[in-house]
Design a protein that fits this description.
Keywords: Iron, Metal-binding, Oxidoreductase, Vitamin C. Belongs to the iron/ascorbate-dependent oxidoreductase family. InterPro entries: DIOX_N, DUF7798, IPNS-like_FE2OG_OXY, IPNS-like_sf, Oxoglu/Fe-dep_dioxygenase_dom. By secondary structure, this protein is an alpha+beta fold. Helices cover 41% and strands 15% of the residues. It has two domains: 274 residues, Sandwich (Jelly Rolls), CATH 2.60.120.330; 168 residues, no CATH class. A hairpin with a 6-residue loop joins strand 13 and strand 14. The longest helix has 46 residues. It starts with 20 loop residues before the first strand and ends with a helix.
Amino acid sequence: MGNIDESFFQETEHRPKQSTIEAENIPLIDLSPILTSDSLNSSSEITNLVAQIGDACQKWGFFQVINHGVPSTCREKIERASKEFFLLPTEEKRKVSRDEDNPLGFYDTEHTKNVRDWKEVFDFVVENPTLLPASHEPHDMELMELKNQWPNFPNNFREACEEYAQGIEKLSYKLVELIALSLGLSSKRLNSYFKDQTSFMRLNYYPLCPIHDLALGVGRHKDSGALTVLAQDDVGGLEVKRKADGEWIQVKPIPDAYIINVGDIIQVWSNDRYESVEHRVIASSMKERFSVPFFFNPSHYVMVEPLEELTNEESPAKYRAYNWGKFLTTRNLSNFKKLNVENVQIYHFRNGDLFTNVLVGLAPNDMVQRTTRRRDTLHSEGVHRLSELCCFAATQLVMLGKSIISTANKVADQDANVEILKMEWPEDSIERAKVIRSKACSMTGCVEAVSSSFITGISEVAEAYLAAVKSVAADSHEVPQKSIQDKANAYAENLRAAHSTAMGKIQDGLQYLPYVVISTSMPAA
């Protein structure tokens, strides 16, 4: 993992506790009833199984399954191949490193919520190639192909991965069908969303960690896809944030069991009946850990929104529709991994109508206070995030310049542990300029997404208030209405100014970099 640095250190409140609660009561579900039939025809066993699935999704968002139908030999092969790969020398693993053009392959500097994870990963897609939008821009219809890259060693690595993926994909479809039934839908209701799927598999390796009290194998997060199917070894380390009290609960490994968790997409489809739950992985100073999660994701063209059957006047849609491919591309714009998780989340697509429902029935003063508090919080957080993005973008542009100079001079920079300084720059100056332009687009895309999200949020809060006051006497809200709307407009302008500042910083940096490219491309005197 290289030299230990502070990029691994979690904030004090997010560091692992000395003692954790072992989750004996995370549901363990026997799937044997589905092994005897290709269809999920109604029977007492299937009905009971569906009820168990629904209860687990609602109360925990996590459960374990046994008698699942995935051959144990497939799992043994991929676990063995994974260990053999990760124990190779680092230079050998980096021959299949992922980069900005291809986010598949080996990677050892993953970040979660701006803190580096204590792990190494190898990613590959189930459908090879997999199509994704080439950019986050809503009107850009261009697609790009993601293609797997495979290492030369171990010899059976690709075969083990592909064989295992087929078995887990079948299990995932069965689980999605059971979840659909638990929501009162037909068993095949969700299947069409996974035609041309963007699902991918990840091999995780967690080396021994001498700072296990400061770092995490993976920081707290929720999974953005539909469903995750996890195989973990006997070391354990996965912790789930219990919905009932917010305590971190350790998930005890069960031989040949799979851990299943609901992702953000199912939360949206179910209109919050089922919730995607935060989880993390503890690092260990005693034993290495290996795991294999499968992320079951829909096709890039799917518009994710609450299902029509699960919404009505009493339970309106809690989310606006969003395009899954654009969502995923926005989170994978570049190698600047510190920006991924923080920028785009499903709460950015929550409908303002929900806040209207919260306000209706409150006393006038309470209505104003709630609106003001939420509006001010959104503004404060938006300014803070844009400021962070501005500083980060400026820093990255400086680092790009240093990387170009270091490459041209063929001298190792003292900050060589920073990933961006290790970039391999093309010899041609025009090609170098294209690389810089691509990275700048990634940064500007992040700024655009964040500013747009918070400006929209503030506007929706004001609109929710205006909708709520229609249910009460107009004269009691005449002055607050204007004040709240004016303040919302002012905050939106303030965020636009912060957005312009961040974009300006990026442009300033871009004006500097061409001189660096030209000067390092000129022949020596």
